[in-house]
Amino acid sequence: MKFKRLKIVEQIIIISLIGVLFPSVISWFIINNVSQHSIRQELHASADMLAGIIENNISAVINSDVNRLNEIIISLKHMPDEEQQDLYLKDLTINSDIFKDFDIIRLSENPDFNTEDKVVYDSEANRLWMTEKIHDDKYLKAEINPDVIKNNIIENIREEQDRRIYVVDRTGKLIFSHNYDEEDFQQCVKQLPVNLVNNIATRFDEIKNQPRVYLKMDDVNLIIIVNTSEQLAKSTINKARLKILAAFLVAAMVTLMLTLAYSYYLYLNMRQLLKGIIAVSKGNYNRRISLLTNISTPREIIFLADEFNLMINEINSAYIKLQEKNKELKQLDSFRSNLVDTVSHELRTPLTSIRGYTSRLLRTDIEIDEETKHKSLLIIKQQSERLSRMIEDLLVIPDIEGAKLNINLEPVNLLNIVEASIYSVKNIETREVETDIPYDFPHIQADKDRLEQVMINLISNANKYAYPDTPIKIEAKHDDDFAYIKVENQADYIQKEILDTLFDKFIRIDDKTTRTTRGTGLGLYIVKGLVEAMQGSVHIKSKPENIFSIKVILPLSKENNNEH
Known about the structure:
Strand content: 15-25%
Strand order of the largest sheet: 6-5-9-8-7
Distance between the termini: 100 Å
Number of strands: 16
Order of helices and strands: HHEEEEHEEHEEEHHHHEHEEHEEHHEEH
Protein backbone atom coordinates (compact mmCIF):
# COMPACT_ATOMS: atom_id res chain seq x y z
CA MET A 1 0.00 0.00 0.00
CA LYS A 2 1.47 3.30 -1.08
CA PHE A 3 1.83 5.91 1.65
CA LYS A 4 -0.20 9.02 0.90
CA ARG A 5 1.39 12.23 2.08
CA LEU A 6 -0.91 14.80 3.58
CA LYS A 7 -1.26 18.34 2.33
CA ILE A 8 -0.05 21.25 4.42
CA VAL A 9 -3.57 22.30 5.40
CA GLU A 10 -4.41 18.71 6.44
CA GLN A 11 -1.27 18.45 8.55
CA ILE A 12 -1.99 21.85 10.13
CA ILE A 13 -5.52 20.73 11.06
CA ILE A 14 -4.27 17.47 12.61
CA ILE A 15 -1.49 19.22 14.53
CA SER A 16 -3.94 21.90 15.70
CA LEU A 17 -6.39 19.26 16.94
CA ILE A 18 -3.64 17.35 18.75
CA GLY A 19 -2.07 20.53 20.10
CA VAL A 20 -5.39 21.81 21.48
CA LEU A 21 -7.37 18.70 22.43
CA PHE A 22 -4.57 16.64 23.99
CA PRO A 23 -3.44 19.33 26.49
CA SER A 24 -7.11 20.15 27.12
CA VAL A 25 -7.96 16.56 28.01
CA ILE A 26 -4.95 16.26 30.34
CA SER A 27 -5.77 19.61 31.92
CA TRP A 28 -9.40 18.49 32.28
CA PHE A 29 -8.39 15.40 34.26
CA ILE A 30 -5.97 17.36 36.43
CA ILE A 31 -8.36 20.20 37.15
CA ASN A 32 -11.25 17.75 37.63
CA ASN A 33 -9.27 15.91 40.32
CA VAL A 34 -8.25 19.17 41.92
CA SER A 35 -11.87 20.30 41.73
CA GLN A 36 -13.09 17.09 43.39
CA HIS A 37 -10.61 17.57 46.20
CA SER A 38 -11.73 21.18 46.59
CA ILE A 39 -15.40 20.16 46.58
CA ARG A 40 -14.64 17.46 49.16
CA GLN A 41 -13.06 20.12 51.37
CA GLU A 42 -15.96 22.42 50.72
CA LEU A 43 -18.50 19.73 51.67
CA HIS A 44 -16.54 19.03 54.85
CA ALA A 45 -16.36 22.74 55.71
CA SER A 46 -20.05 23.23 55.00
CA ALA A 47 -20.91 20.20 57.19
CA ASP A 48 -18.83 21.69 60.03
CA MET A 49 -20.56 25.02 59.57
CA LEU A 50 -24.00 23.40 59.50
CA ALA A 51 -23.28 21.50 62.72
CA GLY A 52 -22.25 24.78 64.33
CA ILE A 53 -25.43 26.49 63.13
CA ILE A 54 -27.60 23.70 64.54
CA GLU A 55 -25.67 23.90 67.82
CA ASN A 56 -26.35 27.62 68.04
CA ASN A 57 -30.02 27.10 67.22
CA ILE A 58 -30.42 24.37 69.81
CA SER A 59 -28.61 26.46 72.41
CA ALA A 60 -30.81 29.42 71.61
CA VAL A 61 -34.00 27.34 71.92
CA ILE A 62 -32.85 25.60 75.13
CA ASN A 63 -31.79 28.88 76.72
CA SER A 64 -35.10 30.42 75.75
CA ASP A 65 -36.97 27.49 77.34
CA VAL A 66 -34.75 27.67 80.43
CA ASN A 67 -35.59 31.33 80.82
CA ARG A 68 -39.27 30.52 80.58
CA LEU A 69 -38.89 27.78 83.20
CA ASN A 70 -37.11 30.24 85.47
CA GLU A 71 -39.99 32.67 85.03
CA ILE A 72 -42.43 29.86 85.89
CA ILE A 73 -40.33 28.91 88.93
CA ILE A 74 -40.39 32.51 90.13
CA SER A 75 -44.14 32.51 89.81
CA LEU A 76 -44.37 29.19 91.69
CA LYS A 77 -42.30 30.60 94.56
CA HIS A 78 -44.95 33.21 95.08
CA MET A 79 -47.61 30.49 95.41
CA PRO A 80 -47.20 28.73 98.75
CA ASP A 81 -50.31 26.74 98.18
CA GLU A 82 -49.57 23.57 96.20
CA GLU A 83 -53.09 23.46 94.86
CA GLN A 84 -52.60 26.88 93.30
CA GLN A 85 -49.31 25.73 91.88
CA ASP A 86 -50.96 22.71 90.26
CA LEU A 87 -53.72 24.85 88.76
CA TYR A 88 -51.11 27.30 87.45
CA LEU A 89 -49.10 24.55 85.83
CA LYS A 90 -52.19 22.92 84.29
CA ASP A 91 -53.19 26.27 82.87
CA LEU A 92 -49.70 26.68 81.32
CA THR A 93 -49.93 23.21 79.83
CA ILE A 94 -53.21 24.08 78.15
CA ASN A 95 -52.07 27.44 76.79
CA SER A 96 -48.38 26.76 75.96
CA ASP A 97 -47.18 25.53 72.55
CA ILE A 98 -43.81 24.59 73.93
CA PHE A 99 -44.52 22.81 77.20
CA LYS A 100 -46.75 19.76 77.10
CA ASP A 101 -46.67 18.81 80.81
CA PHE A 102 -45.17 19.84 84.15
CA ASP A 103 -44.22 17.86 87.22
CA ILE A 104 -42.75 18.93 90.56
CA ILE A 105 -40.19 16.43 91.81
CA ARG A 106 -39.20 16.20 95.48
CA LEU A 107 -35.78 14.68 96.09
CA SER A 108 -36.92 13.33 99.39
CA GLU A 109 -39.52 11.28 97.62
CA ASN A 110 -37.36 10.45 94.52
CA PRO A 111 -33.78 10.05 95.66
CA ASP A 112 -32.76 8.47 92.26
CA PHE A 113 -33.81 11.48 90.22
CA ASN A 114 -30.96 12.71 87.95
CA THR A 115 -30.45 16.40 88.54
CA GLU A 116 -27.31 16.73 86.37
CA ASP A 117 -28.95 16.39 82.96
CA LYS A 118 -30.98 19.43 82.14
CA VAL A 119 -32.32 17.82 78.97
CA VAL A 120 -33.46 14.20 78.98
CA TYR A 121 -35.02 12.36 76.06
CA ASP A 122 -37.23 9.32 76.49
CA SER A 123 -36.96 7.55 73.15
CA GLU A 124 -39.59 4.94 74.06
CA ALA A 125 -42.18 7.55 74.89
CA ASN A 126 -40.71 10.07 72.43
CA ARG A 127 -40.72 12.65 75.24
CA LEU A 128 -38.18 15.43 75.90
CA TRP A 129 -37.81 16.64 79.50
CA MET A 130 -36.11 19.72 80.89
CA THR A 131 -35.34 20.04 84.59
CA GLU A 132 -34.77 23.23 86.56
CA LYS A 133 -34.22 23.60 90.31
CA ILE A 134 -36.91 25.37 92.44
CA HIS A 135 -35.01 25.02 95.72
CA ASP A 136 -32.87 22.39 97.34
CA ASP A 137 -35.52 19.75 97.63
CA LYS A 138 -37.82 20.61 94.76
CA TYR A 139 -37.20 20.52 90.93
CA LEU A 140 -39.53 21.49 88.14
CA LYS A 141 -39.66 18.90 85.36
CA ALA A 142 -41.18 20.17 82.09
CA GLU A 143 -41.96 18.13 79.03
CA ILE A 144 -41.02 19.99 75.84
CA ASN A 145 -42.62 19.38 72.47
CA PRO A 146 -39.73 18.03 70.28
CA ASP A 147 -41.50 19.10 67.09
CA VAL A 148 -41.44 22.72 68.20
CA ILE A 149 -37.70 22.58 68.79
CA LYS A 150 -37.17 20.72 65.53
CA ASN A 151 -39.21 23.23 63.54
CA ASN A 152 -37.38 26.17 65.05
CA ILE A 153 -34.04 24.62 64.21
CA ILE A 154 -34.85 23.28 60.73
CA GLU A 155 -36.48 26.59 59.80
CA ASN A 156 -33.02 28.16 59.71
CA ILE A 157 -31.45 25.45 57.55
CA ARG A 158 -33.99 25.03 54.75
CA GLU A 159 -31.24 25.38 52.13
CA GLU A 160 -29.72 22.14 53.40
CA GLN A 161 -32.56 19.98 52.11
CA ASP A 162 -30.20 17.22 50.95
CA ARG A 163 -28.28 16.91 54.23
CA ARG A 164 -29.17 14.24 56.78
CA ILE A 165 -29.20 15.68 60.28
CA TYR A 166 -29.59 13.70 63.47
CA VAL A 167 -29.74 15.09 67.03
CA VAL A 168 -29.22 12.37 69.67
CA ASP A 169 -28.62 12.24 73.38
CA ARG A 170 -25.47 10.90 74.99
CA THR A 171 -26.80 7.35 74.86
CA GLY A 172 -27.39 7.59 71.11
CA LYS A 173 -31.17 7.96 71.33
CA LEU A 174 -32.62 10.06 68.48
CA ILE A 175 -34.30 13.24 69.61
CA PHE A 176 -35.16 14.63 66.18
CA SER A 177 -33.86 14.39 62.63
CA HIS A 178 -33.96 15.87 59.17
CA ASN A 179 -34.14 13.61 56.06
CA TYR A 180 -34.15 10.57 58.35
CA ASP A 181 -32.89 7.27 56.96
CA GLU A 182 -32.89 4.27 59.32
CA GLU A 183 -29.92 2.47 57.81
CA ASP A 184 -27.87 5.65 57.56
CA PHE A 185 -28.77 6.62 61.14
CA GLN A 186 -27.70 3.26 62.52
CA GLN A 187 -24.38 3.46 60.65
CA CYS A 188 -23.72 6.96 61.92
CA VAL A 189 -24.47 6.08 65.54
CA LYS A 190 -22.45 2.88 65.30
CA GLN A 191 -19.41 4.65 63.85
CA LEU A 192 -19.37 7.48 66.41
CA PRO A 193 -16.08 7.48 68.34
CA VAL A 194 -16.08 6.32 71.93
CA ASN A 195 -14.38 9.46 73.18
CA LEU A 196 -16.17 12.46 71.76
CA VAL A 197 -14.67 15.91 71.56
CA ASN A 198 -16.80 18.59 73.18
CA ASN A 199 -18.11 21.64 71.34
CA ILE A 200 -15.94 21.09 68.22
CA ALA A 201 -17.28 19.89 64.87
CA THR A 202 -15.28 16.74 64.16
CA ARG A 203 -15.28 14.50 61.09
CA PHE A 204 -15.68 10.77 61.52
CA ASP A 205 -15.85 7.95 58.96
CA GLU A 206 -13.81 8.16 55.73
CA ILE A 207 -16.36 7.61 52.96
CA LYS A 208 -15.06 9.42 49.86
CA ASN A 209 -16.92 12.62 48.99
CA GLN A 210 -19.42 12.02 51.90
CA PRO A 211 -18.07 13.72 55.00
CA ARG A 212 -19.82 12.84 58.32
CA VAL A 213 -19.47 15.35 61.14
CA TYR A 214 -20.51 15.21 64.78
CA LEU A 215 -20.63 18.00 67.34
CA LYS A 216 -21.14 17.19 71.04
CA MET A 217 -22.92 19.91 73.06
CA ASP A 218 -21.41 19.62 76.50
CA ASP A 219 -23.87 21.86 78.32
CA VAL A 220 -27.01 19.94 77.28
CA ASN A 221 -25.43 16.53 76.53
CA LEU A 222 -26.73 16.44 72.95
CA ILE A 223 -24.85 15.15 69.91
CA ILE A 224 -25.44 16.70 66.47
CA ILE A 225 -24.64 14.45 63.48
CA VAL A 226 -24.47 15.91 59.96
CA ASN A 227 -24.14 13.42 57.11
CA THR A 228 -23.66 14.34 53.41
CA SER A 229 -25.68 12.01 51.26
CA GLU A 230 -24.21 10.37 48.18
CA GLN A 231 -26.78 12.10 46.02
CA LEU A 232 -25.76 15.54 47.34
CA ALA A 233 -22.08 14.78 46.84
CA LYS A 234 -22.60 13.55 43.28
CA SER A 235 -24.85 16.48 42.45
CA THR A 236 -22.33 19.00 43.76
CA ILE A 237 -19.42 17.31 41.97
CA ASN A 238 -21.38 16.98 38.72
CA LYS A 239 -22.33 20.65 38.79
CA ALA A 240 -18.70 21.59 39.26
CA ARG A 241 -17.70 19.20 36.49
CA LEU A 242 -20.26 20.68 34.14
CA LYS A 243 -19.01 24.18 34.85
CA ILE A 244 -15.38 23.13 34.34
CA LEU A 245 -16.30 21.18 31.21
CA ALA A 246 -18.23 24.13 29.79
CA ALA A 247 -15.32 26.45 30.51
CA PHE A 248 -12.89 24.00 28.90
CA LEU A 249 -15.08 23.52 25.85
CA VAL A 250 -15.40 27.27 25.36
CA ALA A 251 -11.66 27.77 25.86
CA ALA A 252 -10.82 24.83 23.60
CA MET A 253 -13.19 26.04 20.88
CA VAL A 254 -11.84 29.58 21.02
CA THR A 255 -8.25 28.29 21.03
CA LEU A 256 -9.01 25.86 18.22
CA MET A 257 -10.73 28.54 16.14
CA LEU A 258 -7.85 30.97 16.64
CA THR A 259 -5.34 28.22 15.86
CA LEU A 260 -7.20 27.15 12.73
CA ALA A 261 -7.65 30.77 11.61
CA TYR A 262 -3.95 31.47 12.08
CA SER A 263 -3.06 28.15 10.44
CA TYR A 264 -5.30 28.98 7.47
CA TYR A 265 -3.62 32.37 7.22
CA LEU A 266 -0.22 30.65 7.18
CA TYR A 267 -1.53 28.16 4.62
CA LEU A 268 -2.58 30.98 2.29
CA ASN A 269 0.93 32.44 2.43
CA MET A 270 2.50 29.00 1.94
CA ARG A 271 0.19 28.51 -1.02
CA GLN A 272 1.49 31.74 -2.53
CA LEU A 273 5.02 30.37 -2.19
CA LEU A 274 3.98 27.10 -3.83
CA LYS A 275 2.28 28.93 -6.70
CA GLY A 276 5.43 30.98 -7.24
CA ILE A 277 7.60 27.84 -7.34
CA ILE A 278 5.18 26.10 -9.73
CA ALA A 279 5.12 29.18 -11.99
CA VAL A 280 8.92 29.23 -12.13
CA SER A 281 9.03 25.50 -12.89
CA LYS A 282 6.74 26.15 -15.86
CA GLY A 283 8.95 28.96 -17.20
CA ASN A 284 7.06 31.98 -15.86
CA TYR A 285 9.91 34.16 -14.55
CA ASN A 286 7.71 37.22 -14.00
CA ARG A 287 5.82 35.64 -11.11
CA ARG A 288 6.17 37.48 -7.83
CA ILE A 289 4.99 36.40 -4.38
CA SER A 290 2.53 38.74 -2.71
CA LEU A 291 1.90 37.77 0.93
CA LEU A 292 -1.01 38.61 3.22
CA THR A 293 1.07 40.41 5.80
CA ASN A 294 0.09 41.74 9.19
CA ILE A 295 1.61 41.91 12.67
CA SER A 296 1.32 38.12 13.10
CA THR A 297 3.13 37.22 9.87
CA PRO A 298 6.27 35.21 10.78
CA ARG A 299 9.56 36.87 9.90
CA GLU A 300 10.81 33.69 8.23
CA ILE A 301 7.94 33.65 5.71
CA ILE A 302 8.48 37.32 4.83
CA PHE A 303 12.22 36.67 4.48
CA LEU A 304 11.54 33.62 2.29
CA ALA A 305 9.15 35.60 0.06
CA ASP A 306 11.63 38.49 -0.29
CA GLU A 307 14.47 36.12 -1.13
CA PHE A 308 12.24 34.31 -3.63
CA ASN A 309 11.34 37.61 -5.34
CA LEU A 310 15.02 38.60 -5.47
CA MET A 311 15.85 35.21 -6.96
CA ILE A 312 13.07 35.63 -9.52
CA ASN A 313 14.40 39.07 -10.44
CA GLU A 314 17.86 37.63 -11.02
CA ILE A 315 16.47 34.65 -12.96
CA ASN A 316 14.27 36.94 -15.04
CA SER A 317 17.20 39.25 -15.73
CA ALA A 318 19.35 36.27 -16.73
CA TYR A 319 16.50 34.92 -18.83
CA ILE A 320 16.13 38.25 -20.64
CA LYS A 321 19.87 38.31 -21.28
CA LEU A 322 19.65 34.73 -22.51
CA GLN A 323 16.85 35.71 -24.86
CA GLU A 324 18.95 38.59 -26.10
CA LYS A 325 21.87 36.26 -26.63
CA ASN A 326 19.58 33.83 -28.44
CA LYS A 327 18.36 36.69 -30.56
CA GLU A 328 21.93 37.64 -31.30
CA LEU A 329 22.67 34.03 -32.17
CA LYS A 330 19.68 34.02 -34.51
CA GLN A 331 20.93 37.26 -36.02
CA LEU A 332 24.38 35.76 -36.43
CA ASP A 333 22.83 32.70 -37.99
CA SER A 334 20.79 34.93 -40.26
CA PHE A 335 23.93 36.94 -41.00
CA ARG A 336 25.74 33.75 -41.87
CA SER A 337 22.91 32.61 -44.14
CA ASN A 338 22.61 36.02 -45.75
CA LEU A 339 26.35 36.26 -46.13
CA VAL A 340 26.46 32.91 -47.90
CA ASP A 341 23.49 33.94 -50.02
CA THR A 342 25.10 37.29 -50.80
CA VAL A 343 28.46 35.81 -51.64
CA SER A 344 26.90 33.11 -53.80
CA HIS A 345 24.48 35.48 -55.50
CA GLU A 346 26.13 38.89 -55.66
CA LEU A 347 29.80 37.97 -56.04
CA ARG A 348 29.10 35.41 -58.76
CA THR A 349 28.02 38.03 -61.32
CA PRO A 350 31.18 40.20 -61.36
CA LEU A 351 33.39 37.11 -61.18
CA THR A 352 31.55 35.58 -64.10
CA SER A 353 31.96 38.78 -66.13
CA ILE A 354 35.64 39.07 -65.28
CA ARG A 355 36.25 35.41 -66.10
CA GLY A 356 34.27 35.61 -69.37
CA TYR A 357 35.97 38.72 -70.72
CA THR A 358 39.37 37.53 -69.56
CA SER A 359 38.87 34.23 -71.40
CA ARG A 360 37.80 36.19 -74.48
CA LEU A 361 40.96 38.28 -74.46
CA LEU A 362 43.10 35.19 -74.06
CA ARG A 363 41.67 33.43 -77.10
CA THR A 364 44.18 32.89 -79.88
CA ASP A 365 41.89 31.39 -82.46
CA ILE A 366 40.27 34.72 -83.24
CA GLU A 367 41.57 38.17 -83.86
CA ILE A 368 40.28 40.87 -81.49
CA ASP A 369 40.40 44.45 -82.54
CA GLU A 370 41.62 47.24 -80.29
CA GLU A 371 38.17 48.67 -79.64
CA THR A 372 36.86 45.28 -78.45
CA LYS A 373 39.95 44.82 -76.27
CA HIS A 374 39.47 48.25 -74.76
CA LYS A 375 35.79 47.62 -74.12
CA SER A 376 36.51 44.21 -72.55
CA LEU A 377 39.22 45.63 -70.33
CA LEU A 378 36.87 48.44 -69.24
CA ILE A 379 34.20 45.94 -68.24
CA ILE A 380 36.79 43.88 -66.36
CA LYS A 381 37.90 47.02 -64.56
CA GLN A 382 34.32 48.01 -63.64
CA GLN A 383 33.47 44.51 -62.38
CA SER A 384 36.70 44.37 -60.41
CA GLU A 385 35.86 47.70 -58.77
CA ARG A 386 32.36 46.42 -58.04
CA LEU A 387 33.81 43.25 -56.52
CA SER A 388 36.27 45.34 -54.53
CA ARG A 389 33.47 47.51 -53.13
CA MET A 390 31.41 44.49 -52.10
CA ILE A 391 34.42 42.91 -50.38
CA GLU A 392 35.18 46.22 -48.70
CA ASP A 393 31.59 46.41 -47.47
CA LEU A 394 31.84 42.92 -46.03
CA LEU A 395 35.17 43.63 -44.36
CA VAL A 396 34.02 46.86 -42.74
CA ILE A 397 31.07 45.18 -40.93
CA PRO A 398 33.16 43.58 -38.10
CA ASP A 399 34.89 46.92 -37.54
CA ILE A 400 31.53 48.69 -37.26
CA GLU A 401 30.08 46.10 -34.88
CA GLY A 402 33.20 46.03 -32.75
CA ALA A 403 33.62 49.82 -32.79
CA LYS A 404 37.12 49.29 -34.17
CA LEU A 405 36.90 51.54 -37.19
CA ASN A 406 40.11 53.36 -37.99
CA ILE A 407 38.83 56.91 -38.51
CA ASN A 408 41.18 59.70 -39.53
CA LEU A 409 39.25 62.94 -39.07
CA GLU A 410 40.47 65.89 -41.16
CA PRO A 411 38.99 68.82 -43.05
CA VAL A 412 37.33 67.47 -46.20
CA ASN A 413 36.01 69.28 -49.28
CA LEU A 414 32.47 67.97 -49.66
CA LEU A 415 32.07 68.99 -53.33
CA ASN A 416 35.15 67.01 -54.39
CA ILE A 417 33.94 63.97 -52.48
CA VAL A 418 30.49 64.11 -54.08
CA GLU A 419 31.91 64.48 -57.62
CA ALA A 420 34.29 61.55 -57.11
CA SER A 421 31.49 59.44 -55.69
CA ILE A 422 29.17 60.13 -58.62
CA TYR A 423 31.89 59.06 -61.02
CA SER A 424 32.42 55.80 -59.07
CA VAL A 425 28.75 54.70 -59.18
CA LYS A 426 27.94 52.14 -61.88
CA ASN A 427 25.46 53.08 -64.61
CA ILE A 428 25.11 56.59 -63.24
CA GLU A 429 25.68 57.95 -66.74
CA THR A 430 22.07 57.25 -67.71
CA ARG A 431 20.71 59.10 -64.68
CA GLU A 432 20.57 62.89 -64.22
CA VAL A 433 22.26 63.89 -60.97
CA GLU A 434 21.51 67.40 -59.71
CA THR A 435 23.97 68.77 -57.17
CA ASP A 436 23.33 71.87 -55.13
CA ILE A 437 26.58 72.37 -53.23
CA PRO A 438 28.22 75.81 -53.25
CA TYR A 439 31.87 75.98 -54.26
CA ASP A 440 32.67 77.78 -51.01
CA PHE A 441 30.94 75.20 -48.88
CA PRO A 442 32.90 74.94 -45.61
CA HIS A 443 35.06 71.93 -45.01
CA ILE A 444 33.64 68.98 -43.08
CA GLN A 445 35.46 67.28 -40.24
CA ALA A 446 35.47 63.68 -41.54
CA ASP A 447 37.54 60.79 -42.87
CA LYS A 448 37.95 61.36 -46.59
CA ASP A 449 37.86 57.71 -47.66
CA ARG A 450 35.03 56.82 -45.31
CA LEU A 451 32.96 59.82 -46.40
CA GLU A 452 33.49 58.87 -50.04
CA GLN A 453 32.34 55.33 -49.20
CA VAL A 454 29.22 56.80 -47.54
CA MET A 455 28.38 58.98 -50.54
CA ILE A 456 28.97 56.13 -53.02
CA ASN A 457 26.56 53.92 -51.08
CA LEU A 458 23.94 56.67 -50.86
CA ILE A 459 24.12 57.59 -54.55
CA SER A 460 24.24 53.93 -55.59
CA ASN A 461 21.18 53.20 -53.43
CA ALA A 462 19.29 56.17 -54.96
CA ASN A 463 20.27 55.05 -58.46
CA LYS A 464 18.98 51.53 -57.87
CA TYR A 465 15.55 52.39 -56.50
CA ALA A 466 14.67 55.67 -58.24
CA TYR A 467 11.99 55.71 -60.90
CA PRO A 468 13.35 55.56 -64.47
CA ASP A 469 14.10 58.91 -66.07
CA THR A 470 13.91 60.75 -62.72
CA PRO A 471 16.84 62.75 -61.34
CA ILE A 472 18.83 62.28 -58.16
CA LYS A 473 19.20 65.43 -56.14
CA ILE A 474 22.18 66.06 -53.88
CA GLU A 475 22.16 69.22 -51.84
CA ALA A 476 24.11 70.47 -48.85
CA LYS A 477 23.40 73.15 -46.28
CA HIS A 478 25.11 74.17 -43.09
CA ASP A 479 24.83 76.22 -39.97
CA ASP A 480 27.55 77.31 -37.59
CA ASP A 481 28.36 73.80 -36.41
CA PHE A 482 27.03 71.14 -38.78
CA ALA A 483 26.67 70.27 -42.42
CA TYR A 484 23.41 68.78 -43.69
CA ILE A 485 23.84 66.59 -46.78
CA LYS A 486 20.65 65.26 -48.40
CA VAL A 487 20.37 62.70 -51.19
CA GLU A 488 16.85 62.61 -52.65
CA ASN A 489 15.16 60.55 -55.34
CA GLN A 490 11.70 59.60 -56.50
CA ALA A 491 10.67 56.10 -55.42
CA ASP A 492 7.78 54.09 -54.03
CA TYR A 493 6.43 55.14 -50.64
CA ILE A 494 7.85 53.03 -47.79
CA GLN A 495 5.82 52.38 -44.65
CA LYS A 496 7.34 53.63 -41.39
CA GLU A 497 7.64 50.15 -39.87
CA ILE A 498 9.72 49.10 -42.91
CA LEU A 499 11.61 52.38 -43.02
CA ASP A 500 12.93 51.85 -39.47
CA THR A 501 14.55 48.54 -40.47
CA LEU A 502 16.53 49.78 -43.47
CA PHE A 503 19.62 50.45 -41.36
CA ASP A 504 19.83 46.75 -40.35
CA LYS A 505 22.17 44.28 -42.04
CA PHE A 506 21.03 42.54 -45.23
CA ILE A 507 17.73 44.44 -45.31
CA ARG A 508 16.26 45.02 -48.76
CA ILE A 509 12.84 46.30 -49.73
CA ASP A 510 12.56 43.56 -52.35
CA ASP A 511 13.30 40.10 -50.95
CA LYS A 512 15.51 37.52 -52.68
CA THR A 513 12.54 35.94 -54.47
CA THR A 514 11.29 39.18 -56.03
CA ARG A 515 14.36 41.44 -56.07
CA THR A 516 14.93 43.42 -59.22
CA THR A 517 18.14 45.14 -58.15
CA ARG A 518 21.52 43.87 -57.19
CA GLY A 519 23.24 44.52 -53.89
CA THR A 520 24.25 43.04 -50.59
CA GLY A 521 21.73 44.89 -48.44
CA LEU A 522 24.60 46.36 -46.41
CA GLY A 523 24.73 49.85 -47.90
CA LEU A 524 22.63 51.77 -45.40
CA TYR A 525 23.96 49.70 -42.48
CA ILE A 526 27.51 50.68 -43.44
CA VAL A 527 26.45 54.30 -44.01
CA LYS A 528 25.00 54.53 -40.52
CA GLY A 529 28.04 52.88 -38.90
CA LEU A 530 30.56 55.10 -40.73
CA VAL A 531 28.64 58.34 -40.15
CA GLU A 532 28.21 57.65 -36.43
CA ALA A 533 31.92 56.78 -36.20
CA MET A 534 32.61 60.25 -37.63
CA GLN A 535 30.41 61.75 -34.87
CA GLY A 536 27.45 62.35 -37.17
CA SER A 537 23.94 61.00 -37.67
CA VAL A 538 21.72 59.67 -40.47
CA HIS A 539 17.97 60.16 -41.01
CA ILE A 540 15.61 58.53 -43.55
CA LYS A 541 12.33 59.95 -44.74
CA SER A 542 9.74 58.65 -47.20
CA LYS A 543 6.89 60.91 -48.25
CA PRO A 544 3.53 59.83 -49.70
CA GLU A 545 4.40 62.01 -52.69
CA ASN A 546 6.91 59.26 -53.60
CA ILE A 547 9.89 61.24 -52.43
CA PHE A 548 12.63 59.29 -50.66
CA SER A 549 15.49 61.13 -48.95
CA ILE A 550 18.45 60.38 -46.71
CA LYS A 551 20.01 63.18 -44.69
CA VAL A 552 23.53 62.95 -43.28
CA ILE A 553 24.56 65.35 -40.55
CA LEU A 554 28.29 65.83 -39.91
CA PRO A 555 30.22 68.41 -37.89
CA LEU A 556 32.04 71.22 -39.68
CA SER A 557 35.80 71.54 -39.42
CA LYS A 558 37.12 74.00 -36.85
CA GLU A 559 39.57 75.34 -39.45
CA ASN A 560 36.65 77.12 -41.12
CA ASN A 561 36.42 79.44 -38.12
CA ASN A 562 40.17 80.10 -38.26
CA GLU A 563 39.97 81.01 -41.96
CA HIS A 564 37.24 83.48 -41.20
